[in-house]
Fold this sequence. Notes:
Chain A is α/β, with parallel strands linked by helices. Chain A has helices at 6-14, 20-38, 46-62, 103-111, 154-161, 178-183, 218-228, 272-287, 303-318, 337-348, 351-363, 369-390, 416-420, 427-432, 460-473, and strands at residues 41-43, 72-76, 115-120, 167-172, 187-190, 210-215, 258-262, 291-295, 396-400, 436-444, 447-455. The longest helix of chain A is centred in the last third of the chain and has 22 residues, at 369-390. In chain A, 63% of the residues are buried.
Amino acid sequence: MINASLKQLAQALAAKQISSVELTQLFLDRINRLNPTLNAFVTVDAEKSLKSARAADARIAAGNAGLLTGIPIAQKDIFCAEGWLTTCGSKMLANFVSPYDATVIHKMESEAGLVSLGKTNMDEFAMGSSNETSFFGPVRNPWDTARVPGGSSGGSAAAVAARLAPAATGTDTGGSIRQPAALCNLTGLKPTYGVVSRYGMIAFASSLDQAGPMAASAEDCALLLNTMVGFDERDSTSLERPTEDYTLNLEKPLSGLRIGLPKEFFGEGCDAEVMAAVRAALAEYEKLGATTVEVSLPNSHLSVPAYYVIAPAEASSNLSRFDGVRYGFRAEDYGNLDDMYMKSRAQGFGAEVKRRIMIGAYVLSHGYYDAYYLQAQRIRRLIANDFVEAFKVCDVIMGPTSPSTAFKLGEKAADPVQMYLSDIYTIAVNLAGLPGMSVPCGFAGGLPVGLQLIGNYFAEAQLLNVAHCYQQATDWHQQRPVGLE
Amino acid sequence: MSLTLEQVQRIAHLARIEVSAAEALTTQDHLNGIFQLIEQMQAVDTSGVEPMAHAQDLSQRLREDRVSENDRRAAYQAIAPETEAGLYLVPKVIE
């Protein structure tokens, strides 16, 4: 049961081979045993989880269960969940019990009947690529506990990789689903911007943030995505689109698929063993009937610089709400109102969050707005246009997800710029608003390597199909870390 | 471009984040490293390029002007640092 796919779990629940309560308890026991080593969960509340599991069992008994009703899931601690501590990895929200549900939580739990096992650790306010900026301490990679799981959805990634949960949610602003998925041997999908509601998802950079599933396989991700998407009038950027069933085209043969290989992703800067695994995956795709064509994303080298203007600018605005007045942390000693703001924010935010707020405040300030913020938005347009050109000659773009495998804890923590560059292949996708995936494609030095798939707008079903066919032909995604027990 | 310590203190004040003298030095170092990365943008001629603020070029949706939310003041104020009579308390701003 621990390693079962969501489809297998759904069948076992439907056939009454196991109850949701039993299944939930099984995973809660594993969390109890392994979480002290991994620090993947920041909040577990067995009573709450079991209560949802009992409700799911009642739905199954009454015959009005959905496909995934009763299956346990881990929720990234960026999603507000009513009655649950919702910390976003920050001291600022360490005492914040959310009074409402995010739309993602509502859809997955109240509607689909998934059972929350708890809230997963993350980089503070999703700002980081290693999970080391969390106020609650770093998460450890189940493949090597001296290494990082990636970030910012590192707790979700470690939880699923160690099978503390069958699947999890993540969010991706610059690579935060795809990079930890790559580093922990998972399949992760960042949908097209606007497909999943951002309501109740604590905002980092609102024009980039998007939630998505993290699981063992493309099939699991497709099942989860079905429960997450949909128009939401509470999110002003939510898109009104016809409903899709993302599992429908999973098996479609890949013959004739044109894979674009951006020459900028296959040059210097990527670890040789990672590149070898990616090239082997491309050879496998050719065996499946796909062809490859070189494409160019000539402005992709500017994605990291432009992102570190746009994302901090939006963050500085979004995070101005944390002022110690209405919720969250307030400093103990302060003088006037301004002093209360300054001390609450100085003590409530960690170093990386403060850096990004300050960059944002600077690039938006009088006299610098044109040179930085507008220039970054113009470069964002150039980057998006590069993809439009590339998709004229290919159906899907592939390359490495991350330039290296999981790095050691502390290795990049002292140098923000080095850390930022670990998202060099993922950030352009967020700037353009496209869907992207990471799929396990081998190992380098015993550590997982991720293959990145980038699709055109709303091509989630196609990406999942392309990933699923590869996973039918290979078993990289079924490899599990050993030695944890 | 290189930020001076005074500029770092000014930015910190704009962001309403108190920064000690020692923190300001480290922050200056880190911010200058980051701005060095950001400066790569300045080499690109973007004249005539329309700035892209958003992934989808859609106009903001408008909704009917009606009350759609329930009054949940008590639940929302239960998690506030300090409230009184339904109001959020902060230090006195007007003498």
